[in-house]
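In the design runs reported in the main text, the only information available to the sequence generator was the tokenized backbone. The following block is the verbatim input for one such run; it is reproduced so that readers can re-run the procedure and compare outputs position by position.
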């Protein structure tokens, strides 16, 4: 049994968790609320490896991760994995597209889907969240809300 602990940007259900599962399928995955906390967990020895998004083909560099690597840690990149990303706009059952007043998502997802959101939901307020998984959980609890996830 593999006892390696791998930290990732959580909560469970994020694209980062998917990347961690693909790269380290036998490892124990541990979710952290921010990339900074993932970095801290590696540096303190709580996990052996941390997984964080660093770049995507549409929106470019993920600045949160770069900031942590360049300014807040001594960590080094040791591996790479490519994960295809598909976003869906989700809302609670019974929510019509015309009812959507707010859309929650990670800032990177909001940027990646900017053209679609402006075209189809131009009057909706865009609210950044730490992760798309948290965005989906938030959208379920708010009338007139949707999430990219």
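Verbatim output:
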């Amino acid at each position: 049994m593999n006892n390696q602990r791998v930290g990732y940007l959580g909560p469970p259900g994020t694209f980062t968790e998917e990347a961690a599962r693909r790269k380290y399928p036998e490892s124990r995955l541990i979710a952290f609320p921010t990339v900074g906390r993932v970095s801290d967990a590696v540096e303190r020895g709580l996990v052996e490896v941390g997984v964080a998004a660093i770049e995507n083909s549409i929106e470019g560099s993920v600045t949160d991760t770069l900031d942590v690597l360049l300014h807040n840690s001594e960590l080094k990149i040791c591996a790479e994995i490519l994960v295809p990303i598909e976003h869906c706009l989700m809302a609670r059952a019974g929510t019509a597209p015309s009812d959507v007043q707010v859309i929650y998502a990670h800032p990177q997802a909001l940027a990646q889907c900017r053209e679609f959101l402006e075209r189809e939901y131009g009057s909706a307020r865009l609210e950044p969240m730490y992760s798309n998984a948290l965005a989906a959980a938030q959208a379920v609890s708010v009338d007139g809300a949707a999430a990219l996830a």
